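seq:
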Amino acid sequence: MAFIVTLSSEELDANQGKFRIEQRLTKSRPKSLNIDAALDGPPIALLIGEVPSQPGHERSRWLAWIGIVARHGTVGAVDKSITVDPLRECLATVPLDGPEGILRDLPPSLRQAFDRASLLGTVGACSNAVWQSLESALRARSPGLGPLLDWLIAQADPPVFGDSHADLSWQEQRDATGSLLRMADFPLAALAAWRRPSSDDAPYTAGLIPQPVEHSLIDYDVRVAGEAFGMFSEWQQGSTVRCDIHVLHDASGRRLEVVNVNATPVESRLGTDMLYYHEPTKSFVFVQYKRLGPDGRSIYVDARLRSQLDRLEEAAELSRPPTQPSEWRLGDDPCFVKLAHWPQSTSRRPTQELAPGMYLPISYIRLLLDDDCTRGRREGGTARILGYDQVERHLTGTQFIDLVKHGLVGTVGTTREQLYALVKRRVDSGHSVVVATESSEESVRARQTRTRDRGAKRRTYLHRTYKQNPPAG
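struct:
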């Protein structure tokens, strides 16, 4: 189905600037509106403008913006609301009525249904049959909208992850990609649209659909470009290593280069590594994923995991002691293990939320493994277990990402060449690696100010939503 928000030409003109900055919209809708068809996934939203017409005259409407309904809320005792996020502008005029209007391409019954759902000043909803017919007409009449529709529909109806080796690996790599965007403070929509790659051995980011519009605050200017990330571009020319690169820029000149690479068939991969490198401070954090079972909340610590902990400690030795205040860290742990948990009861449909999990520094894991709290029953009581029942304290995803954003964890004085050598070793050993490098002229103070300002804006928005949406009871 599709939601239709119809605004007068005056109201649309008054809000264009706001829409272009925020690229989202929250609008009240009647409580009586039937949204049962929207429960299977986020539906498309159409924002149309209309010139108020005189009685007896044909309506004059045009499609101005397209987006996805991400959330439903409550406004007062009568109305509910929809939040359209992302919301993107149609850069070319798309008339709906008149001799050139695309509604003429719809069968009369579907056009009537669209008219009933698009009353001026209201939020309506049309059936999937109406939307599919309208989508076909849009693609035929306005081919330039095709890439935008592909990008939005990929988010509105993403593939569902199954139990195959490829899907499980892509699920971890997706979580790593979203984590890196959060650490670098780039919008999640930058890398949100995804379709399964043609090969199970391909990196997750090979299936990303780039956002086609360029008027936003983020410029998605490079995709799978060898010149984007010099030290990894060599892997794009060979046949043994699969490498996919995306480069993002923001309005302040910050640049984020996201590389997803693996060199082994998916069945023999050892797991997923995530690395975030902040080039101005020459600092990286390293997270190795360990997947908890869908029904269990713990894993047994075997010889392979102990060996992997040794390798992570070796990676931590790339750090040097701090020599100035900006290099101070909360501790000497740049390497972490994420015990990631995708419960069986949750949907396998990809979302922008991070997978639940425990972020554990390596030195903390060593203490845990020497404590009776992790002792299991196997091997005469000498086996060790890590999980929610054994670990009383752990970092959550939000806590860990905030520490990274403020530069409070990570190595000191690590060069790009050292990072490249580390990634190469991990790839050669059979791991999928998702690594992001942020580069800019931003000072330490400017980074702190940006991070705090973004956080304040998010808190203000959440506070306003909470006031409009008090929890039940």
